[in-house]
Amino acid sequence: MELRQLEYFVAVAEERNFTRAAERVHISQSGVSAQIRQLERELGAELFDRSARTVTLTVAGKAALEHARAALAAAGAVGQAVDEVTCLLRGRLTVGMVIGCTFTPLFDALAAFHQAHPAVEISLLEDNSDRLVEQVRAGAVDVALTGTAAVPDGLDALTVVSERLVAAVPAGHPLTKRRRVTLRDLAAHPLVCMPPGTGLRTVFDRACAAASLRPTIALEASAADAIAALAARGLGVAVLSTSMAAAHSDRLTAHLVDDIGAPALLALIWDGTRNPAVRELLAHTRRAFGIPAPGGVGNAGEAAGC
Length: 306
Fold this sequence. Notes:
Blueprint: H1 3-15, H2 18-25, H3 29-43, E1 48-49, E2 56-57, H4 59-86, E3 91-98, H5 104-116, E4 120-127, H6 129-138, E5 143-148, E6 156-163, E7 165-169, H7 183-187, E8 191-193, H8 199-210, E9 217-220, H9 224-232, E10 237-241, H10 242-246, E11 253-256, E12 264-270, H11 276-289, H12 300-303
Parallel strand pairs: 3-4, 3-5, 8-9, 8-10
Antiparallel strand pairs: 1-2, 5-12, 6-12, 7-10, 7-11
């Protein structure tokens, strides 16, 4: 009995058709049929009823199916365990990134990961933070860099940035003369802010709701540079994080918003670490952002010298 025979058996059982099963395992239909017949001879029982248009499992086939799946899963686990120890990761890693992100440490982490594990195919996609969270939950994205007000329930997270919100205005704006800026002060002016679904906007909206304020969001943009550019031209007060505003200190003056105590977070999120590629990417991300590993020790890949 060979693993490929079990693979073909499972494929036929799930597809209920020899032709579709052959397409799935990328060999000819006659090859699948021959291997299934050989497996049946070794087991001494027919596994499929071939009398109808749709192939169905016999009683013996039903009894064998879950054991065949378990054997294939165990064989896959053996290969994965060896790959982890020898650092020969393979497969695909789907990384999500919040729209408008230009955070270069993430790109450094991806480059270092790719250099260490060239056999892993990396795909990168942009979306807003709320949708990225849902894609991580659904398994469509392995790990995502998101802006958030709090770590999403049921997911793991590594916070890479935690910053207060500021109001940023150009020279000559009335707010430049104030020593303190509050939400009520902001509500007296049109605002330029990130759109709903972003972490910064969530923090801002929650603070406004708690203060029973409904400020005017005149303009929305996904990129901090665009928000700053609009505010610099007098189109509204920019609502940004401290580092976003600091990047435009040559044309905008930033004031902490006193009554927004909750920070906006930029965090990597993932659903467990069953995927060894995710664990390795997290290790590279910690190094790129200068974040110590938990407990001050590296992960298994680091210990093995990967």
